[in-house]
Design goal:
The complex is a heterodimer of chains A (318) and B (312). Helix content of chain A is 67%, strand content 0%. Chain A is built from twelve helices and no strands. In chain A, helix 3 (50-67) packs across helix 4 (104-140), helix 4 (104-140) packs antiparallel against helix 5 (142-156) and helix 9 (210-217) packs across helix 10 (222-259). Chain A is elongated, with a radius of gyration of 25 Å. In chain A, 42% of the residues are buried. Chain B has 312 residues and is mainly alpha-helical. Chain B has one domain: Orthogonal Bundle (MetI-like fold). Chain B is built from 13 helices and no strands. The longest helix of chain B is centred in the middle third of the chain and has 36 residues, at 91-126. Classes of the chains: A mainly alpha (318), B mainly alpha (312).
């Protein structure tokens, strides 16, 4: 690893610290300076990026909204009175009321839960499928790889929205929870291919490393090598891809709900509210604009977060 | 090359069977009593029931019967016989009326993408890390991150209703002006991707050896960029645009629905809203075929255009 030595040699002297912490101390013999890991480098990079902190803040905010919506609004989103139709802001309803006389802001806050639930669970299942398929294809190679890669190609060839329409039409009359899990299922089943390719390629890279050969010489079986040695290396790129995918899953859920085949009332979802607000946009615009802004900011936050982490992990961009 | 085309064709056939099988299994196989559904409220005599069962092989249960009826559906699909919607119109007629509108909209979106996306991409690629470059990067990130269900209604509200620059909806027989705003909204996503693709490609090619050679020969910059760089940089962009044309035709459900454009996507949108099962299945089946074929054409085009790419 001559790269490491050159990096260490050209590093600023002030950054070197002796055991007692004084700057500029010479390297101690027998106390080797700990080389920074890839993740450590990435973290140093990320810390200085405002876009990382902004998107992280938004993600945490939306997660808090999904977990405890009552923290953000005192109003009940299901407390709708027709006499308040399109009424202006009053009380806790800072954005006024929508066509049905519900609090626009409260509905937007409570809508975070369905979106994040669908996004996170779809990303989780996507990750599980992608890790399994990518690991098997990358580790065993040969006919396993050939077979699984063709499956990936075929699933990649299926248009997501069209397939989702057909799959979800089947459960259009089922109960709320069934529909929620149907949406998650559809997004996971159709959305795992990109992540699986990423995992496969990082498994192939890790497989050829010396430490894998060492582990095998020590008598480790396939299962142990895959679980203990290769998985930790394949995980980081997969998580980056899944963060971006989480954003697009949230957008997909809203789109399906907007079309009327995803979630349905009384479940509160931004997609449903955008559709409802769209119909009455000539009378009042806030019921359209508020859920739109919530949805767009959430999706953007996840995409920007994933983008920033990916850039930080890419040594070519340093 | 021939081997690649053959393999790609085989893959497409598999994807075609896979998708249509899912569509069929979900829409038809699980339904209740199709004969009673055909007759509605009226009683069905034993003779009629026996005749229909015989005709459509409904008595054959299990795998054999299922696949018989599946291939029946495939045969009809390939012959262009899509059946009737619940309103009694031939789905083929609905599609025939809707296609020209959708193609027109897709072409407008494509023109917007090429004119703005590729031009801005070339400028950003030449002036890399400048103000223009950074501004376009942020803008494209915004466009890529904002879903169509936000972009389309907001554009309709702001530009159509509030400031009245464009007609907010298109209506029965839309002219070019009415389709312009939906075209921009539809094209914005591919515009952002095309811009980023062009930018990276141009910036990369500007560092290539042949550019250095051209510069040392004393060629003017306009010629280097216009002839040498642009030609090589546009290969990935052209293929991307090919994929997008297929996507635009099958992916305009939201845009056409929001702006009331009587195209294919709008009919699908309405079919979903009115629970018109046959209409949805018919349109989805056709759109899947369009999508698969356009992907195949582009993949082959890619191999033809770029001699560095060889599929083995």
């Amino acid at each position: 690893m001559s790269d490491f030595e050159t990096v260490a040699a050209t590093e600023n002297q002030a950054a070197r610290r002796g055991p007692s912490g004084e700057p500029g101390a010479p390297d101690q013999v027998g106390v080797p300076r700990k080389p920074r890991s890839l993740a450590g480098d990435a973290w140093r990079d990320l810390r200085r990026k405002p876009i990382f902190w902004i998107s992280l803040f938004l993600v945490v905010l939306v997660a808090a909204m999904a977990a405890v919506p009552a923290l953000f609004t005192a109003n009940d989103p299901r407390d709708c009175v027709l006499s308040r139709q399109h009424a202006g802001p009053s009380g806790g309803a800072i954005f006024g009321y929508d066509f049905q006389g519900c609090d626009t802001y409260a509905r937007a806050v409570y809508g975070a839960r369905a979106s994040l639930l669908v996004g996170a669970l779809s990303a989780l299942f996507t990750g599980l499928i992608a890790l399994t398929v990518g690991m098997l294809a990358g580790y065993f190679g040969r006919w396993v790889d050939a077979l699984l890669s063709r499956v990936i190609d075929i699933v990649l060839g299926i248009p997501l929205l069209l397939a989702a329409i057909v799959l979800l039409k089947r459960v259009s009359t089922s109960s709320d929870n069934v529909r929620l899990f149907a949406v998650i299922f559809v997004l996971a089943v159709l959305g795992w291919t990109t992540a699986a390719r990423v995992v496969r390629s990082s498994v192939i890279t890790a497989k050829g490393q010396d430490y894998v050969a060492a582990a095998r010489m020590l008598g480790a079986g396939n299962g142990r090598i895959m679980w203990r040695h290769i998985l930790p290396n394949a995980l980081a790129p997969a998580i980056v891809v899944l963060t971006i995918a989480l954003g697009s899953f949230i957008a997909a859920e809203a789109t399906l709900s907007f079309l009327g085949i995803g979630l349905k009332a009384p479940t509160i979802s931004w997609g449903i509210d955008i559709d409802a607000g769209r119909v009455h946009m000539r009378e009042a615009a806030t019921p359209l604009v508020v859920p739109s802004a919530f949805l767009a900011l959430t999706v953007l936050a996840f995409i920007m977060l994933g983008d920033a982490i990916r850039d930080a992990f890419d040594p070519k961009l340093r | 090359m021939l081997r690649f085309i053959l393999r790609r064709l085989l893959q497409m056939v598999l994807a075609f069977f896979g998708t249509t099988l899912i569509v069929y299994a979900l829409m038809f196989a699980g339904q209740g009593d199709p004969i009673q559904a055909l007759a509605g409220e009226r009683p069905v005599t034993a003779a009629q029931r026996a005749y229909l069962t015989e005709k459509f092989h409904l008595d054959a249960t299990g795998v054999g019967g299922f696949f018989y009826r599946y291939f029946d559906y495939l045969k009809n699909l390939l012959q262009g016989d899509l059946g009737q919607s619940l309103t009694g119109r031939q789905i083929g007629d609905i599609l025939a009326a809707a296609w020209p509108v959708t193609v027109k909209l897709a072409l407008i979106a494509m023109a917007v993408t090429i004119v703005f996306g590729v031009t801005a991409g070339v400028i950003a690629g030449i002036r890399r890390a400048g103000i223009f470059d950074n501004a376009t990067l942020v803008l494209t990130l915004l466009v890529l991150g904002i879903p169509t269900i936000v972009l389309a209604p907001l554009a309709q509200y702001l530009l159509g209703v509030r400031w009245q620059l464009f007609p907010p909806t298109a209506g029965a027989d839309p002219d070019l002006y009415a389709l312009l705003l939906p075209g921009i909204v539809l094209g914005s996503l591919s515009l952002a991707t095309a811009l980023r693709l062009t930018r990276t490609s141009v910036a990369e090619n500007l560092r290539a050896d042949y550019v250095r050679t051209a510069r040392s020969k004393g060629l003017v910059k306009r010629r280097i960029v216009g002839v040498h760089v642009l030609r090589n940089s546009l290969i990935p962009v052209v293929t991307f645009l090919g994929v997008e044309l297929g996507n635009l035709m099958s992916g305009a459900i939201i845009t056409e629905g929001v702006f009331n454009i009587p195209g294919v996507g709008f009919n699908l949108f309405r079919g979903i809203r009115t629970e018109d099962g046959p209409l949805v299945v018919g349109i989805v089946s056709v759109l899947v075929v369009v999508y698969l074929v356009s992907n195949l054409v582009v993949d082959v085009l890619y191999a033809v255009l770029d001699p560095r790419i060889r599929y083995e």
